[in-house]
Design brief:
The protein is an alpha/beta fold. It has 11 helices and 10 strands. Bound molecules: NADP nicotinamide-adenine-dinucleotide phosphate.
């Protein structure tokens, strides 16, 4: 199976679909990660705060796939915001993963009230320049915050990973990303899965294409140009979620899914959300 790629602003690329690992921990977590890799996922998403980087590293080693062929994402949590603190938080992730370098490293949340994301970003640039991180980006950043990073440092994030699903398609933010060469990643791409996949609009589109409702939703992300990172502990569902490249939605179908917009599901407004 061939998975298309999206170019990053630094000459590297990401596959059009990745694998989320939130809640995959311990030996079952490592087994789920290994299974995802053998299924064909090459982009993995973890974070220090998921408390599973050890399991992700073990899963990579158990998969038998060359580490160099896998793109590992991790994220710096709020308690390590600040220039010097960023290096400490990064080393913790790197040690837990058991890897020499991290492929994509993101600031997990902007925490504007803490007011340190700019100096944190300067340290991320340094990590990249030292070769410890291949690409740097952010998560949950607004247009205003992205603009500030670029204006103050001249370095535009390669990626902004944000809440994105049919209830919250983020059209304005995606348009900004496109205009500035930032790749969008969709977290919780299935949203509140059981509710979304029961939507008549989605079940009808899925039936018309002979795919599952989940596949229709994930294909919608791909056609928006956003990289979904669905999490599944189950090998069959992992296979289902990556099998998106043999059908195509038409423009009316993409618009019909986008029209399900109602707002954020998880309440994590980047201007106010705090987690450390
Ligand atoms: N940057 C951030 O702030 C942030 C925030 C939240 C999440 N994330 C990342 O985004 C990833 C994905 O988000 P998420 O885990 O919240 O939600 P999600 O991927 O939208 O949904 C995961 C849920 O859907 C189920 N599922 C997956 N595929 C399915 C299928 N084909 N059929 C039926 N059920 C299916 C999973 O159950 P099973 O495991 O049983 O299949 C799980 O309960 C996370 O794992 C994490 O890596 C990032």
């Amino acid at each position: 199976m061939s998975i298309p790629t999206l170019a990053l602003n630094n000459g590297r690329a990401l596959p059009a679909i990745g694998f989320g690992t939130y809640n995959l921990r311990g030996e079952p977590g490592a087994a789920a990660v290994a299974s995802a890799i053998t299924t064909g996922y090459r982009l993995l998403d973890t974070a220090l705060n998921y408390e599973n980087e050890g399991a992700v590293g073990d899963g990579i080693r158990a998969s038998g796939v060359d580490r160099a062929d896998i793109i590992v994402t991790s994220k710096l949590p709020g308690r390590f915001h600040g220039y010097d603190e960023t290096f400490v938080g990064f080393e913790e992730s790197r040690a837990l993963l058991g890897l020499d370098y991290v492929d994509l490293y993101l600031i997990h949340w902007p925490l504007p009230k803490v007011g340190k994301y700019l100096e944190t970003w300067r340290a991320m640039i340094e990590l990249r320049d030292q070769g410890l991180v291949r690409s740097i980006g952010v998560s949950n950043f607004t247009i205003e915050q992205l603009t500030r990073l670029a204006d103050e440092t001249g370095v535009v994030p390669a990626v902004n990973q944000v809440e994105l699903h049919p209830r919250f398609p983020q059209a304005e933010l995606r348009a900004f990303h496109t205009a500035h060469g930032i790749v969008t990643e969709s977290w919780s791409p299935l949203g509140n899965r059981s509710e979304i996949t029961a939507e008549p609009v989605i079940t009808r589109i899925a039936a018309d294409h002979g795919v599952t409702a989940t596949q229709a939703v994930l294909r919608w992300h791909v056609q928006l140009g956003a990289i979904p990172i669905p999490k599944s502990a189950n090998p069959e569902r992992q296979q289902e979620n990556i099998d998106l490249f043999g059908f195509e939605l038409d423009d009316a179908e993409v618009s019909a899914i986008s029209a399900l917009e109602s707002g954020r599901l998880w309440g994590g407004d980047p201007d106010t959300h705090e987690e450390f």
